[in-house]
Amino acid sequence: xxxxxxxxxxxxxxxxxxxxxxxxxxxxxxxxxxxxxxxxxxxxxxxxxxxxxxxxxxxxxxxxxxxxxxxxxxxxxxxxxxxxxxxxxxxxxxxxxxxxxxxxxxxxxxxxxxxxxxxxxxxxxxxxxxxxxxxxxxxxxxxxxxxxxxxxxxxxxxxxxxxxxxxxxxxxxxxxxxxxxxxxxxxxxxxxxxxxxxxxxxxxxxxxxxxxxxxxxxxxxxxxxxxxxxxxxxxxxxxxxxxxxxxxxxxxxxxxxxxxxxxxxxxxxxxxxxxxxxxxxxxxxxxxxxxxxxxxxxxxxxxxxxxxxxxxxxxxxxx
Length: 319
What we know:
Blueprint: E1 7-11, H1 13-16, H2 19-27, E2 37-41, H3 47-51, H4 62-67, H5 72-88, H6 97-124, H7 129-158, E3 163-166, H8 179-187, E4 196-200, H9 209-213, H10 217-228, E5 233-238, H11 247-250, E6 260-262, H12 263-271, H13 279-287, E7 292-296, E8 305-308
Parallel strand pairs: 1-2, 1-5, 2-4, 3-4, 5-7, 6-8
Antiparallel strand pairs: 7-8
Helix pairs in contact: 5-6, 6-7, 8-10, 10-13, 12-13
């Protein structure tokens, strides 16, 4: 693969829920800068909460129902209907509704069948409950990212652009590949300088991406893709700037975007809740000298926050 000036760009769930704006502000904003960019996408806002559990409140999702052997199939079908409605809202952006509904509907039906088989295996007592539950958790998590990545590629294709859905979920691949091997294999025959790539934030691997990182799996995928493909820059598109303070606490008139910082400060910010990227995901980027740029997807004219290995502020300040 040709990786000259390649950028790997992560789009979070809240931003994905405003995908028509993402198209205008990020993907197609500059007609001469459409290619050479691989987008790692999260599920649409709230979908992973429904599949697993609410990230902040802990409210149980489908995974908890499966673990407690409650009526998860009905809840999954309800989620399917909600995703169909979400798809309907993207038709004006270019989504082929029938194709998109068939894709996610078929995968949810298959997931229900797989989980039912897991139920039977659990009941037999011959397999480790912990290992099987982790597999179920990863299976459910992958659905959200497959849905959003497939839709994104479909929308761009229907707008007349060459676009590729890069499925790192491994649903239709029974090979026992590590996470790194799957990423390399999936991108081996793709030229990101001639097609717009949308890759799933979830990557299937023998080591289990959620075993160590759980809900941080999309950041790990983002980091690994950037390192393995030799990216020039890793960009994170959020719905806000990385700022000097919390506007809800000290007021919007008293803050400003942080334009430059280094990995050490970014890690410290993550420790106090102002997380740009999980430290375990940023470390490989730092080691490989790949800068991170955090941008507000809805303020496209701003260059964002550039996080580099060697930045030193010209004037010392209290952190």
